[in-house]
Amino acid sequence: MQDHRVREHPILPVEERATFEFTWQGQTMVAKEGETIASALFANGVRIFGQHHKDGAPQGIFCANGQCAQCLVVANGLPVKSCMVLVEPAMQVEPMVGLPVLPGVEGEMALQPPETVDVECLIIGGGPAGLSAAIELGKVGVRTLIVDDKHRLGGKLVLQTHKFFGSIEDCYAGTRGIDIATMLEEEVRSFENVQMWLDTTALAVFSDRKVGVLQGQHYVVVQPHVLLVATGAREKSLVFKGNTLPGVYGAGAFQTLLNRDLVRPAERLFIVGGGNVGLIAGYHALQAGIEVVGLCEALPDCSGYKVHKDKLARFGVPIYTSHTILSANGQVQVESVTIAQIDRNWQPIPGTEQSFACDTVLIAVGLDPVDELTRKAKEFGLPVYAAGDAEEIAEASSAMFTGKIRGLEIAKSLGRDVGEIPPEWHRTSEILKSRPGAVVVEDIPEREDGVFPVLHCAQEIPCNPCASVCPQGCIIIGGDDIRGLPEYVGEGCSGCQKCVAICPGLAITLVDYRKDRDYPTVTIPYEFLGRTIHEGDVVTVLDTEGSILGNVEVVKVRAPKMADRAYLVKVRAPGEIAKRIAGIRVQEESVGEPLGHYVGRIQDDAMICRCERVTAGEIRALIRAGIRDMNDIKALTRAGMGACGAKTCTVIIKRLFREEGVPEGQFVESTQRPLFVEVPLGVFVGVSTGERPEETAVVHATDIHEGGM
To answer: Average pLDDT for residues 110-133, to the nearest whole number?
Structure first.
């Protein structure tokens, strides 16, 4: 039996957990306590979870966040989202083939009126923004309830093994995301006036300004005085041939399986999208020993932080800018990917096609705010605030700070004496949200004596850990805020290596000429397994852009506490290359070599609506026939009528209208339904996972009104 679990990791603890057996299609498999069904299946080598009822297409995981229904399976006789439900001992899991079969119900259904809970502030989302807001509300005694649909708090922080950018003083810069999640959760739990409901999904904001939530398997109505939506973002989808094959999914799904559940979701990975999300996911893959075949980005350069791009380049990952994906190829799951260079009009250039063998295509082409609940609350007059990505897409450091501001704003709106929010808070918030600045020429020091840091950081981003930790004050941030480039000033460097250890971008090395001016030593940060590098090894070193400088000897490997689970590797290098060394190659060039042939794509055959299997060609034909109402397209094709609630296809259908020359304002958008997430109707009347309540009152359709049930 295959085992795809992570057995060792340079940053994450791999703890022993109790194991038990479950079955998949009658075959006995082993799961670990706390795993979701999806993670347990992936760990056992299963990537195809069922077949679509419309055309028999293979279905697999897509979002791993409960936002779609691609991973539906039948567990103990009931259809469930395998990414959200924990596997249990002796659970019988079967693939979803065709439409789910509803369980039989004998007699009349009984009514169990839902519990109603009154709170001053309801926070939907226990990520960085929601937790930061809850801390401020907790400090001033506001009765607060946090609901989150996961099994632990922290949101995307629990997936982030890298050190954060930003300000040490304002948002824990230099600390790993997984540790920030723990710190925020511990602080929130210290307040008695703040409750936390995990495994709880917000279903809808109703017209009577109540919010329906599913707590486990029990429906509860929450009456908040104020609502804070901190639901984060969902990943944008991309249309190409084979975009629904098992093995095509987003960076969030990949990081959930890998960094939260410690399951290897791929052996050979190709990334589409050069923003921070895709770049960071590639680095996480390398840390887990997964081969990263390449990354393509449609823009002339990656839009993420240059230090993230540089890390991948010097670790051996080919990066193809001005390229797009043409197709994911394979019969029932991904076997290869085909990309091509694009021209100024974003069209593929014939003859530039290349295919690469891989088993996973990771889509990281941007994020959209999860703002449906915010819009409904505004429509129905419920006082509502938004924070983090649910308000504006930015880094997690910004989400924490905007959450802090929203917490005080809400407290003030509820009559708490919190004074005025300092104006500098808003300025800090804007700084943390700011996009990367222009790239400048890397400044390599001319001196060749003593000891000093080389700052391989050539782009303005909000970040100050190096300047904050330097005990000699030798590093300053240029400009009037933390977005300036770091500069080394003075002669006072003692060679303490703190700047090398803390830099989130792994963009600082320390060059020491004190013992040998011809062959100085260079200290390099290294966040991979210690067993992969030893004193006496000969390693290939590269410059900032990933160009090979040569082979050098490792003279020392340390893991000081200040490096926080990372290593500081000291190499002895010729003077002519020492100051240009930025990293050590960890992946051989052969990994990124293309195949000798490519697979062509088929126009209009790409899937727009994943849930209902509606193609681009079908929708284009309706637009060209004069249809200008997305509700009509839904009625004619079922596009947007699937289990995900049109979360994925709506944006793409709008894009098709624009491509066909119909701009925004000249077509009608789909009507948004009250329910944000699909839910078994039985929960509204107290029926939980097939069990009937003890009460005997009979439920009629007219008993269920929009707000109270």
So the answer is: 91
- Residue 411: pLDDT band (50, 70, 90) is very high
DSSP reduced 3-state for 73: strand
Does position 551 have pLDDT exceeding 50, yes or no? yes
**pLDDT for 121 beyond 50:** yes
- Matching CATH topology for 19-100+237-363 and 115-233+369-433? yes
Give the C-alpha separation, 23 to 657, whole Å: 46
Q: Taking 80 as the threshold, does the pLDDT of residue 704 lie above it?
A: no
CATH of segment(s) 115-233+369-433: 3.50.50.60
- pLDDT bracket for residue 478 (50, 70, 90): confident
Residue extents of the structural domains in the chain: 19-100+237-363, 115-233+369-433, 451-592, 614-659
pLDDT exceeds cutoff 70 at 705: no
CA distances from 442 to 236, 314, 436, 581 (A): 33, 15, 16, 12
Distances (CA, A) of 310 to 251, 283, 288, 627, 702: 19, 11, 19, 47, 61
CA nearest neighbour of 549 among 572, 517, 582:
582
Burial class (CB in 10 A: 0-12, 13-18, 19+), 165: buried
Domain 19-100+237-363, CATH 2.40.50.140 — does that match? Answer: no
> Does residue 123 register a pLDDT over 80?
yes
Residues 466-484 have a mean pLDDT of: 91
In this prediction, residue 268 carries a pLDDT of 97
Residue 150, Cβ neighbours under 10 Å: how many?
A: 20
What gap in Å lies between CA 367 and CA 276, rounded to an integer? 11
Q: Residue 504 burial by CB count (10 A; 0-12/13-18/19+): exposed, middle or buried?
A: buried
Residue with tokens 């490997």: 557
Q: DSSP label at 39?
A: H
Region 163-180 average pLDDT: 93
**How many Å from the N-terminal Cα to the C-terminal Cα in the chain?**
47
CB 110 within 8 A of CB 692: yes
Q: What is the CA radius of gyration of the chain?
A: 26
Query: CB–CB of 148/130 below 8 Å?
Result: yes
270 three-class SS: strand
